[in-house]
Amino acid sequence: MRGMRDFLGRWSGVLVLLALWMALTLMTPRFLTPSNLLNVALQSSILAVVALGMTLTIISGGIDLSVGSVVALTGALTAGLMIRNGWPVGGAILAGLGAGLALGLLNGALVVYGRLVPFIATLSTMAIARGLTLVYTRGYPISGLPEAFTFLGTGEVFGIPMPVLLMGAVALGISLLLNRTPWGLHLYAVGGGEDLAWLSGVRVNRVKGLVYGMSGLLAGLGGILLTARLWSAQPNVGVGLELEAIAASVLGGASLSGGYGSVGGTLVGALVMGTVGNGLNLLEIPSYHQQIIKGLVFILAVGLDRLLKTGPWPARSIPVRRRGTS
Amino acid sequence: MDRPSAERMKGLEQPARIMPGLGALEARERWTRLGLVLTLVMFCLALSLLSPRFLTPGNLINVVRQASINGIIAVGMTLVILTGGIDLSVGSILAFTGVVAASLVTSGQPPALAMASALILGSLMGMLNGAAVAYLRIPPFIATLGMMTVARGLALSYTQGRPITGFPESFRWLGAGWMGPLPVPVLVMALVFGFGGFLLSYTIFGEHLLAIGNNPAAAQAVGIPLRRRLVLTYGLSGFLASLAGLILIGRLDSAPPTLGIGYEFDAIAAVVIGGTRLTGGEGWLGGTLIGALIIGVLNNGINLLNIPSFYEQVFKGGVIAAALLLHRVLRRE
User: Fold this and answer.
1) Contact B137 A288 (CB under 8 A)
2) How many C-beta neighbours within 10 Å does residue B312 have?
3) A91-120: per-residue pLDDT in tens?
4) How far is the alpha carbon of B33 from chain A, nearest alpha carbon, in Å?
5) pTM given for the model
6) B150 and A291 in contact by Cβ < 8 A?
7) Which superkingdom heads the taxonomic lineage of this protein's source (chain A) (predicted)?
8) What is the CATH number of the domain that holds A62?
């Protein structure tokens, strides 16, 4: 039985995803076609990029609520620099990524030096970045982007959409970082218990600061991809994206109390979210009802995942968040 | 920093003292609380210097009335956070129960029945949150996030996205009425805070909440009916969210399904500014009240100083972060 339980615990996310795919295949013939599956991958890819950064902060025991606003700000900034100031595509993209990194590092500084709870520090940044986006765009979308830029969101290489390729590259990079470098080990150690990590010689502050910087950077990349895909920068884009990214991470096995989380899991989590969205559209469910179903599927998926992981009802495992260690 | 756990456990033998009462305050905590009050006073002073319209009785009552909705929600949020959880669904529960009450009353049902249904519905939705947390073992963040999406979807599909308007006077009383010199919402907020304070300081229930937040496994080991307590706590949060919803739609004389988006963040901010630990087990309801008032003064200031709406969020986020940072700096000395 132990082997079975280990198997279920390890692959619970994939099993949930397969169950979802099977259900959708039975419900509509249009789901299991190559073009639609590619579409699901495309729809999930931007969320996955942002969620991978979120996963890093969650592994460290924190959270980054600002990603949705950072997506909007970097998208608007990149588009604005190209359209209003005539910057070259490459320069604008670098500036956008730089802005994302800077906001992420600001989060890191607030958490590390300001000793603010990550929830609150990033909540402030969320408000500030959204406000700056509205100020910069004056509430209007910025459109008319050059082809060279929109290629990032809409182009294809060897039949694979660019966002999916970029997501693959990001996932590979982070996976290597987490599993093949000492830094990855340090990150899990910090999430498992800061005091112990510090006593073992891990530079806790540096790890934590960097994690938020990377989350901001990836949110910046997400913003650029989204802007390229939509052909314009919308000031209200990315509202609620932080919650979807957290959901993807948690579906992928990350624990909000830190120390757990993986690249593969988060990708599966993002695919689950993308599949649900895609399925609801294929089934032509009205948008108001989509929200209700999304919320229910979300809770059920996490509940099922927990059930597969721990078996039915152990007496003394209660999901109240663990105390902070600092 | 944490107190040693032996000291924490000691509180279990001494009912009614686990919540640091006024007599048992450590000097440090007293300073922290004083600092919080001073922050509020400083905000008020700064605003009265910047705008002559701030320090008038009419405006001050207005500030408290505007803060009352967030304050009422924040009481429930404080209880939930004390258990180590969080409730992201309050804004959506407020919206759904609000539109249900509004549709009942506009279809000719008596206002009292409409209000009661909203409150019961809100409590049930909150209890569903609690059941998901306690029985399905779903992390509170995720369970209430799901409820947030579901309840918002219910509100939107129930109304087909259109606001419901035109309520009878008696239905609006809760939000727009006056009792003597004070607006009804302010009185309701005072009652809710009084009730919450009583619950935390003088009842076994409050003691249990703190014990659960401190260490859920230990709380269960000493025989606290943890699951039922969690269901009740989230239920209270849902109840208070729907109460705040009734006040809000009474004041607006309209119930749009988009009501209360982002209210969860304001409530959490009030709780955290008030010094309650986000990891649970330690907190002060009075701090939540001051936190709600600080946010209320901030919003009022944004209006009085005519800050352009695009800058509003930059300003608000910046000030809240700055206030908390200042608080940290003062506290370390």
Assistant:
1) no
2) 18
3) 999 999 999 999 999 999 999 988 888 888
4) 18
5) 0.85
6) yes
7) Bacteria
8) 1.10.3470
